[in-house]
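Practice record 12: protein with S-adenosylmethionine.
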Amino acid sequence: MPIEYNDMVCSLTAIERERMPAPMFKFKQIRRMLFFNLRYLGRPRWDTGVSPPELEAFLETAKPGSALDLGCGTGTNLITLLDHGWTVIGVDEVCIAVLRARRKLRKAGYRGRVILGNVAGDLLPDKHFDLVLDIGCYHSLHEKARKKYHQNLRRWLNVGGTFLIYAHRKNTPDVGHGITETDLTRFGEFLKMQWQKNEAEKRPDGGCGRAATWARFDRV
Ligand SMILES: C[S@@+](CC[C@H](N)C(=O)[O-])C[C@H]1O[C@@H](n2cnc3c(N)ncnc32)[C@H](O)[C@@H]1O
């Protein structure tokens, strides 16, 4: 009998509307999920509570619409989007992160959905967004999941919409983590790149100096 993803992570079934796909029990995927789940037992280093200037700059000029935050973590960027008048849905595969994000929205007096789900699963099949945001999620996906993510993104992003992504760059070819020029070219197959910025990771705490990329794609 397939094991439900929700049952494996924690028992959230009663409060979840979305069903999760059964996971493929591969070592790397379990290791990746364990990594994120364990990180959220404390406060992960990326959970700075501050939205990056690249997102703030986009929001200063963009007309508010609907946004999907992929790998939303504890919801910092959902709040920033809501502060700018956007409607939001956040997705994360770690239930502690999802619960913290929901609490953050509630405490701020905002309405918004935060879903426990896999961005590379069959999620939100009928939803379309003006902005899809990914800060640090895509770069940890394995190849097959990246393909599904691309399919989902094609479905989710409205014509005229924007895909804003921040990702670590892949330094070693045989290591799974990181984004490559090939990944960016693949986004370019159905989106128009507006800009790309390659630089060392920056965070309020200084970051770890890791090579990273910000890019903005629009659906024309
Ligand atoms: C580096 S953290 C960034 C979190 C948040 N975007 C932020 O800026 O604070 C990446 C997030 O992506 C989530 N994540 C990774 N793979 C995922 C997947 N396949 N589906 C949903 N969430 C995922 C992790 O649980 C984690 O919360």
